[in-house]
Amino acid sequence: MALWLYFLISLLVVAALAVVNSQHQRVSDRWLQRTFDALQFDTAHGRQAGPDMQVVKQVTMEVSSHNHPLTAFWYCVGEGPSYFVAMAHYQRDGWMGGHYEWTIKSLDEARMRHALIDDKQALQATFGSADPGVLHA
Fold it and tell me: Which of 33, 58, 69, 82 is 20 to 30 Å apart from 52, CA to CA?
């Protein structure tokens, strides 16, 4: 009987941890999106706000560093078209707090195609075709 009780308590603890982790991920995703929306991109047609950019691919990596636990790469298309990768790094401000710092890099068409070469949907959204074409070094 005690074994069943131990199993039931363990199962409830694991389920509770899964729910908390899922909720934390949703909050983190919304926070990351809000900080992206505050960015400004210098396109061929002037400055463009984050919400006006078309994000065609998002890559998020959780790393084990205490100071930089998360890094995200968002590949974006702006007017012109202009191509960018916006890189977010989470910076801890102490034991419980932190903020995202973004670095924006402009990409030419060849570099954008190379970055998206393994993602047919992103290529289609960016260039209108999933054919990566020929890249010249």
Answer: 69
